[in-house]
Amino acid sequence: MNQSSSQLRRRLLDGTTRIFLAEALILPLALMGHLLLIPRLGAVGTALMTTLFAVCGALGTVLAVYRIWRVLPPVSTLLRSMIISGVAFSLAALWTTPGFVLLLKLPVILLFIVLAFKLSGEFSAAEITLVRSLFRWQPGTGQTHRF
Predict the structure, then answer these.
(1) Tens of pLDDT, residues 25-81
(2) How many Å apart are CA 78 and CA 84, to the nearest integer?
(3) Around Cβ 1, how many Cβ atoms within 10 Å?
(4) Which of 14, 92, 96, 143 has the highest CB neighbour number within 10 Å of its CB?
(5) What is the distance between the alpha carbons of residues 101 and 96, in angstroms, rounded to a whole number?
(6) Among the residues of 70-144, which ranges form H helices?
(7) Is 11 exposed, middle or buried (0-12, 13-18, 19+ CB in 10 A)?
């Protein structure tokens, strides 16, 4: 029994598991950070904490993927992501929307992000085919559409 518990402990403390455990701590740490900084810094504190923990989450995910599959994202993907994210942020910050118009703004920015990645060549033909297959109506399944 002692040997199996030491093996379990070793497996729990391997590098990949530690990364996932650290990822699990991000949410409570972000909550504490928000509770501490929002009263002191207001919106700047919120933005600071959100950015900090989003970056930590992204880096942790990249590290976990690398530890498991030994794959890192290409530099071109990182650059495209940074540029597209910057433009999306600018759109969100500059396009002020009152009330329910926000429900239009967010899908438009999301559509911009998806199209920007598609037009920049980020998605392979196989990935596009996979996504299309998830949303394609299949004839002969008993579904009828009236227009």
Answers:
(1) 888 988 998 899 889 999 898 989 999 998 988 888 888 888 888 889 999 999 999
(2) 10
(3) 5
(4) 92
(5) 9
(6) 75-94, 102-119, 125-135
(7) exposed
Q: Specify the pLDDT at position 5.
A: 66
Q: What share of the chain is helix, strand, coil (3-state, %, to 5)?
A: 80, 0, 20
Residue reference for tokens 């239009």 = 104
CA atoms within 13 A on the CB side of 109: 20
Tokens of 130: 């996979």
pLDDT of residue 17: 73
Average pLDDT, stretch 92-104? 91
What b/e string do you get for 119-132 counting C-beta neighbours within 10 Å, with b at 16 or more? eeebeeeeeeeeee
